[in-house]
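Pilot study result, target chain (463 residues):
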Amino acid sequence: MRASELVVVANRLPVNRVVREGATRWEASPGGLVSALTPLLKGRECSWVGWAGTTGTPPGPFEQGGIRFVPVPLSRQELDTFYEGFSNRSLWPLYHNAVRTPEYHRHWWRPYVEVNQRFADRVARVLAPHGTVWVQDYHLQLVPEMLRALRPDATICFFLHIPFPPEELFSQLPWRREILRGILGADLVGFQMPLAAQNFVELCRRFHKIQVRDDRLRFEGRSIRVGAFPISIDVDHWERLATAPAIERQAARIRRRLTPSRTILLGVDRLDYTKGIDRRLKAFDTLLAARPELVERMVFIQVAVPSRERVGDYADLRTDIERLVGHINGRHSRSGVVPVHYMYRSLPPDQLVAYYLAADVMVVTSLCDGMNLVAKEYVACRTDDTGVLVLSEFTGAAHELRQALLVNPHDVDGLAATLEQAIAMPRAEAARRMAALRRTVRQHDVYRWARDFLGTRVERASA
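Predicted structure:
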């Protein structure tokens, strides 16, 4: 197997295997991690190690789009315990401020360890001498320490894409020392926000004997850099899509179907309890109840991307959201006028951008979010400086996108008032705000994120 100077390791490969008319091919999968990392890797001698999305014997390594993909196997039982269990019912809710009660089961921990070791073993085999490994996210927090034991010559970087909880929450985790020690195997540890990095350092002080000086930790004779590196998007890519004539025509068709005079509010989220979809729908319901005449003047489009459908909490959430949509439409619809259009599906990039272009107001109401790239994608697509962004103050993006209308999604009445403010905002003010948002997103794009995180090891593919 050919060795790579740079290896990205993540729970999933950024492609899905699909079969159409008897032919098998790999297609890009949706997701913030994929959209952020893929542009950085094309055209380089690099590998991406991850699960291929199916249980049993995985396919062999393959190349597509200039990236070499190295699948890692998962059994059905490991999918239940490592992924759906420990990763998404223990760590995910805990790291998102316990917005759902985390579950801690001993029989989930051992598969988490075993799968992390399998990933580390696979990376060690494909990494060139003195190469760089970029470990991604909460599924693989033990990999840095495991890989260091296998490949002490490697430069190991770890980035957490979701929030990192404060001491009083993280300390609940029975395997808190092991998780921290796993991450401390890295040379560079990155988080979305300074508070997350601070939480990590304070926990390492408590549970491991570390010394701290500026942004450096000293642990077992090694120096570890810890910092905040807010992730972003490939702005040029989204702008190219937004100005493509075919996509502009799609956006115009969407507006015509919904009546051009109606203000379009849009939500695009994975169907996850951290995204606050129910809060925004309740706020929309509250606004229509207070201002019933607005039902003729605005429409809410909610795109809910299927996620973790086998996990009970997510199946229940889907039922609750669809019941809420039915309640709102039953309460406020008039002949020929439906206030909420709900789609439970993933949209291909061209359709997604068409909806970004059609929408007058983008509504992001996450209860807790590491960054939220949807907000940045919407801003990048508004090349004419139109549109209004309503953004939860509990997203990482809120720390950068200060010209958005920032909201507390737990305050339904306040959110309803902000939606009313958004649809009534004068064009000049909306243009001023959007222009400022676009400058921020352009100045802090995905290439700057990678450059800040990995230094000179990663540059633009065109450089």
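One observation from the pilot: The first strand starts at residue 4 and ends at 12. A full batch analysis is planned for the follow-on phase.
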